[in-house]
Amino acid sequence: MGKTREKKRLREPGSDGAFSGERIQEEQTEIALLVVDCGGVAVKPTQALSGKFDMSKMRELIAHWVLMHEHPFTVVEEEGLNNMIKYEIPGWTPVSRYTCKKDCMKVYESEKTKLKTLLKTVTKTSLTTDLWNLGNQKMEYMVLTGHWIDSTWRLNRRILNFVRLPPPRTGIAIADGIFKCLIGWGIENKVYTISVDNALSNDVAIKVLKENFEVSGKLLCGGKLFHVRCCTHILNLIVQDGLHQIRHIIDDIYESVLYINSLESRLKVFSEIVQQLKLPYRKLILHCKTRWNSTYEMLATIIKFKQVFPRVKERDINYHNNLSDEDWKKVEKVCEVLKVFSGSTKLISGSDYPTSNLFLKEVCVVKCMLDSKSESEDDFIRVIVRKMKHKRTEGRANMVTVRDVLYELYGEYVQANQGVTIARASTSQGDGHGTIDEVAAVEGAKAWDDFSTFLDVVETVEPSQSELDCYCGEGCHKCVGDHDSFDALQWWKANSTNFPVLSRMAREILAIPITMVASEFVFSAGSRVIDSYRASLSPATVGMLLCGCDWCRTLNGVKKGCKKEEDENHFEIQLPVLSGDESQQIG
Fold first, then answer.
1. Residue 347's domain spans which residues?
2. 346 & 266 share domain
3. How high is the mean pLDDT of the chain?
4. In this structure, what is the dihedral angle of CA atoms 423, 426, 431, 437, given to the nearest 10 degrees?
5. Which of 41, 79, 322, 523 could form a disulfide with 313 if both were Cys (CB 3.0 to 4.6 A apart)?
């Protein structure tokens, strides 16, 4: 028989602040197991727990788990979870939903303190912000996300605030809300740019913020770079203008998919035709009417079944949305245009890599495609392209503007670098006091420091040819192998010694997000966290859950959510496979 020795020590909550209101149980158990030989197989009827069990640490990990994976607080009260933990940890004490909420808040405050300390080391931060109206709570929230590249040339993105924005939602109210958040983090003088969509209220908010920041003189180039318009929203406006030309066709396709999906018998007929034609496709997509990229996916998918719909009409007299051959040709030509827009949108919408350096290339790709399509003899596609190119600006004038702003910006970085270097050199000079032994001990090190200080002062004088001139005079870097694998941050990190001022400038520019996707992504998580069952959550709790979720995922290296990001109106129809010898699994 096994022998068990247990030592239990119960500690009431004291002044150390370790999860007040709970009894912390620390248990150390040593178990000698009974081993039964059954046919030569060693059987262990129970689990051994050795070492020190820390209940407070376990609760902290549970709080991270709840925040990171968007679980409700009530998950800790589920019997199945507690039974599983008790099986492995006999000393486990179940916690309540209220205790879990307190633990999550404590983790949130701890991570907030760490992030605030980290932001003190950041020189410039680029922001994205957006508003979200939550139907479950009848409230409007504002999210503020910060982007910066640290000294190790690693891109950082953090949700800074997710706060309620009380009505009325005016541009001034948005600006005041943003400025209040910045003051809370102590970065009101470190803002580089802010990316927003084209809403009129955002234009007013940016104007107010710009005036506030210009008072302290903290905006570079007089604030010319401060306002960044979301590129995905601009592409969306262009595409929606073009899609309007075939809106009736899109509506017919949308109704066709709805019609087929409404009854199982219709799906069965559709599946029979698919299998008779031996088509290797099994998915129909119903688009979200407010997202053009989902419209493109619906059109690109429906084209694969264009041979099926005429046959559906032959079998179903109630089906009236069949497209003509001319309509199908229009859909195919539009998809060729949208495919380029879709690829560019996906690329510039990333948040885990720099996007400001990708803007020009993707604009050129789209422009070249539009130019080639405008030469087409097809009148229909020419009308769409003309709509998309309606507000094209003169390229040469823009190139001159970009060049002038680039040199103006570089000049300000040079001046700032000179001021920092001279200040560092002046503070590095000692007062000359100390004992003889002390002076002798540091004489060698001081000689090297004096030489380094001399170099710092000398390098503040701009040479006849600046770093920017040298950089522009060098040949373009040609990627070897896959050009998509080129890492701009690593290139600048490797060349920071050759271009010390320009590399600092590049590090802050490359952190500028050209889309609001990083902020909009938060709303997908928000719709899951504040579902119909948790609509009573207070705004403070909502902010804690969404910010804590982002911070805990960053801390634990979790890049994506545990649930699929998917709009409720964008779903896939799985066509049923017929039974019998004639049925065939279609991949």
1. 238-388
2. yes
3. 79
4. 100
5. 322
Paired tokens of 311? 């046959």
- State whether 265 and 355 are in the same domain: yes
> In this model, does residue 291 exceed pLDDT 80?
no
Instruction: Record the pTM.
Output: 0.77
Pick the last residue of a domain from 356, 388, 420. 388
Phi, psi of 27 (to 5 degrees): -135, 135
Query: Do 251 and 371 belong to one domain?
Result: yes
Helices 395-427 & 500-509 angle (0-180, nearest 10): 120
Q: How far apart are CA 388 and CA 179, in angstroms?
A: 36
Q: What's the token pair of residue 321?
A: 């949305």
Looking at the fold, whether 88 and 145 belong to one and the same domain comes out as: no
CATH of the domain at 217: 3.30.420
Burial of 82 (0-12, 13-18, 19+ CB in 10 A): middle
Render pLDDT for 83-130 as a digit per residue (tens, 0 to 9): 999 888 887 889 999 999 999 999 999 999 999 999 999 999 999 999
Q: Is residue 343 part of a domain?
A: yes
In-domain check, residue 361: yes
Please check whether residues 242 and 384 belong to one and the same domain: yes
In terms of domains, do 86 and 64 share one? Answer: yes
In contact, 127 and 191? CB cutoff 8 Å: yes
Note whether residue 573 is domain-resident. no
Q: For 244-272, what is each residue's pLDDT tens digit?
A: 888 999 999 999 988 988 888 888 889 88
Question: Are 352 and 312 in a shared domain?
Answer: yes
Kindly tell me if the per-residue pLDDT of 565 is higher than 70: no
Alpha carbon distance 471, 559 (integer Å): 35
Q: Residue 51 region, left (φ>0) first, then alpha (ψ -120 to 50), else beta?
A: left
Cα separation of 300 and 333, whole Å?
11
Answer whether residue 5 is part of any domain: no
35: pLDDT strictly greater than 70: no
Mean pLDDT, range 279-308, rounded to an integer? 85
Q: Are residues 95 and 128 in the same domain?
A: no
Which tens digit of pLDDT belongs to each residue from 189-198? 999 999 998 8
**How far apart are the C-alpha atoms of 531 and 82, rounded to whole Å?**
25
CA 219 centroid distance within chain? 25
In which element (H, E) is residue 520 found? helix 517-529
Q: Is the pLDDT confidence value at 205 over 70?
A: yes
Q: Contact 61/91 with Cβ under 8 angstroms? A: no
306/304 Cα distance (integer angstroms) = 6
